[in-house]
Amino acid sequence: MEIPWWRDAVVYEIYVRSFADASGDGVGDLAGIRERLPYLRRLGVDAIWLTPFYPSPMADGGYDVADYRGVDPMFGSLADFDALVASAHELGLRVIVDIVPNHSSSEHPWFQEALRGAGRDRYIFRDEPNNWQSTFGGSAWTQVADGQYYLHLFAPAQPDFNWRNREVHEMFLDVLRFWLDRGVDGFRIDVAMGLYKAEGLPDVDGQAFGTVSPMWGRPEVHGVYREWRRLLDSYPGERMAVGEVWTDDHEDLARYVRPDELHQSFNFAWLQAPWSAEAFRKVIGDTLAAVPHATWVLSNHDVVRHRTRYETSEPGTGLARARAALLAMLALPGSAYLYQGEELGLPEVTDLPDAARQDPVFFQSKGEQPGRDGCRVPIPWTVDPPSHGFSPGGVEPWLPQPASFAELSVEKQEGVADSTLEFYRRALALRRELVGEIPYTLEWLDSPEGALFFIRGSLICAINCGTAPVRLPEHDEVLLPSGPLRRDLLPPDTAVWLRRRS
Ligand code: NOJ
Predict the structure, then answer these.
(1) Closest Cα to residue 60, out of 3, 106, 126, 112?
(2) Domain of 115, in residue numbers
(3) Please, what is the Cα angle at 261 between 152 and 300, to 5 degrees?
(4) CA 32 to centroid of ligand 1, rounded, Å
(5) Considering 86, 119, 151, which residue would you say is the last residue of a domain?
(6) Which residue is closest in CA terms to ligand 1's atom 2?
(7) What is the 465 CA–ligand 1 centroid distance (Å)?
(8) Residue 165: what pLDDT?
(9) How many domains in the chain?
């Protein structure tokens, strides 16, 4: 059987608000992305995933959708979307869009109608709340004027749909058709383990995000994905779906990617693993045993950037480890998801002023949690202030960039041999050459304490998470190291790709 395009694809996540601003209002937009497609082609990715760009009051960065079939004027128009898809396809890039089926915006016409008392069965209204807490903090229930409460597992501006109402299914099937007809290649499904809640909405013990519970991972949700899969398969061109499934159980994860359900699911166990060869070995082994088509991701718009996660008190560790982890990730069987800016080695911005923050997590936790704005700071394209080439002219971007972004800008790294950008380009180009030659399977090689060695056909990947240099495994050629090697020694916080001719 032909290998489907998504099996080994490298997908680049674009956080639309923060990638590139063509209109000059300080907010990223679809036309800005279109202008930068050649950069992504040159980077060597296969597809882009666009975070929500639909009309939205932006209570949760667009994950509060008021109209599932449009483009927010802040991001452009449907014509801009069509032009973006056409240009991406001309360059050989696939396009994945985000679908948010667990909840809508409170500004969605259905919820507005529900507030007026009609069609409440499309959402979850009750006379009395249960003890559920919102993922963002505080009660998951908000009272409306006539005394009833509605459920929102995220912000109050994100009421949860009632998936036991068939009208909700029909609406989303129409939405999928709408975007499929416009030529999208796939969907990223937001909170894919959500949608259904246990009958009777029983109380839970504590916060249960990411574990199968009355709030998450209900078995009925698989019926939805079976129906969506049939729809995707009825279109030509290998349309796909990837689920955002937060679960701590690999067997649960595997249920979402059965042959008649989603094609892929994110693998957050890999992203959550600490810097440890043992932890990496376990996640890789468990994943490959559990799912037919693996995916790997180190960063996204919801988590602290991996450069910063891996940082220790020793300066430079974070970037060295981030580069090493990238090589390990790109050597694994399956598809890899990159998050915009990681190719520049961007760190989390930890010192944003409170007045600039926008994430509901910050507000709902009453400032106890900084929230996710620190990984959403606009991309620095050039060295020039005030926006480092993100916006044209002298416009300030919607979140302030630190001065240190100038040194990390595309302009500063382009053509500089050991820059992170050129390292990503080399790794992606090599992967493209190798992927057709090497088997999907992976074998472990004996590795010294603190290190992890594995082989796929002629490709060996070695990563050293320990504190002492280790001897490289037997090889014929060094293909690409993530940092300087010391002759035949692999220093700590370094990975390398080697070729072995059998
Ligand atoms: C996951 C999205 O990635 C995140 O940004 C959002 O806040 C929640 N889902 C709720 O939609």
Answers:
(1) 106
(2) 109-151
(3) 55
(4) 23
(5) 151
(6) 190
(7) 31
(8) 98
(9) 2
How far, CA to CA in Å, does 205 sit from each of 132, 213, 247?
9, 10, 17
Can you give the pLDDT at residue 63?
98
Say if 448 falls within a structural domain. Answer: yes
What CA–CA distances, in Å, run from 6 to 46, 185, 414? 9, 10, 28
pLDDT < 50 positions in the chain: none
8, 29, 244, 311: which one is catalytic?
244
The tokens describing 298, both together, are: 């180190």
Q: Is 191 in the pocket of ligand 1 (CB under 6 A)?
A: yes
Best probe residue, ligand 1, of 49, 58, 63, 152 (max atoms within 8 Å of C-beta): 63
Write out the DSSP string of 233-300: HTSSS--EEEE----S-HHHHHHHTSTTS-SEE--HHHHH--S-HHHHHHHHHHHHHH-SS-EEES--
Is the distance from the beta carbon of residue 60 to the nearest atom of ligand 1 less than 6 Å? Answer: yes
Q: With H, G, I as helix, E, B as strand and everything else as coil, classify residue 139.
A: strand
Distances from the Cα of 106 to the Cα of 129, 239, 298, 406, angstroms: 18, 30, 32, 39
DSSP conformation class of 137: S
Whether 202 is in a domain gets the answer no
My answer on whether omega of the bond before 448 falls inside 30° of 0, hence cis, is: no
pLDDT of residue 394: 85
What's the CATH code of the domain at 493?
A: 2.60.40.1180
What's the pLDDT at 207?
Answer: 62
Give me ligand 1 centre to Cα 63, in Å.
6
What phi-psi label fits residue 378: left (phi over 0), alpha (psi between -120 and 50 degrees) or beta?
A: beta
Q: Comparing C-alpha atoms, which of 241, 306, 295, 301 is closest to residue 267?
A: 295
